[in-house]
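Protein modeling request. Please complete all fields; requests missing the sequence field cannot be processed.
Requester role: graduate student
Desired output: 3D structure, token encoding
Chains: 1
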Amino acid sequence: MNANSIKFWSFFWRYGFIILIPIEMIVILIIPNTNPIWMFLLFGITFIAAGLDYIIASIYKMPHIYCVSQSIKHQFVTYYPYEMDWKNNFDKKDMIKGGIIFNVIGLVSILTGLVIYFCG
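Delivered output (120 residues):
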């Protein structure tokens, strides 16, 4: 990966997926005769995708997750793979915990949408 793609993916998984949520909701509201339950489902799917990325990228030490970790800790972000200090400056457990939290938020949203759909 080059520095530009690392920068893109680190910004996307740190901020971009949060920006996607209102865009998805607006698109769902614009489409006529669409059940509002789809907003719950898309919200959940977006968070599950982010959570899975945090978990998988942490396990396989993908460069963008290192940058996300630095950004979360308010450190100077290193976008060059040869400057990344995985051993001393990356907490794998914290990133996996964050991914699990995102997955739980996504599952709760999906289950809420399905309960509203089938019971209401």
